[in-house]
Amino acid sequence: MKVIIMGCGRVGAALAGMLDSNGHKVTILDIEPYSFRKLPATFNGVAMVGNGLEEESLKKAGIEEADVFVTTTQGDNRNVLACQIAKHIYHVPKVVSRIYDPIREEMYRNLGLDTVSPTKVVAELLQDRIEG
Question: At residue 91, does pLDDT exceed 90?
Answer without folding.
Answer: yes
